[in-house]
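Request:
Um, any thoughts?
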Amino acid sequence: MRSLGQPVLHPSADLALRAWSASDVHVVGAAFADPDIQYWHMRRIATEDEAHTWIESWVPRWVGETDCSWAITSALSGDAVGQVALRAVDLEFGHAQVTYWMMPEGRGRGFATQAVIAVSGWALGELGLHRLEIQHSTTNVASCRVALKAGFALESTMRSALLHADGWHDMHSHALISPGDAPNAP
């Protein structure tokens, strides 16, 4: 991963995915202040310094080949409207988890789905991963819709799997397998 350098991806004429930069600090602060993002994510960012730290933390994760994150941006303005990431990357066993969030101005426009498709295509193709997963609360209908539209099959419901501020949530687990990798028959 580190030898490739983090690519800029272009899911559509309207969107570009790029590495986070110091100029995004206010977007990150606003994102983590958004009530919907706060509800679904356990991480809190309360200060500009914490936003800088969050942005800067992605570089060593890329170099360490464990995680990577892209700002989902308007192709015209370059302004970030969301985030898509590969988490818990395991190059040896060929899998990772995909996560995403959208700012209010980016919601309902298909941007998250386009970003997930672009990152998944890169991860399964260029990076050579075999399996990608998306996990979300069963009550997060928008996230489920993104996973399904991006081609991630619903595999299971994990009961009482993640603690949110309002208690334990059941989680859906979706997966996307590299199209060239047929499963082994028993």
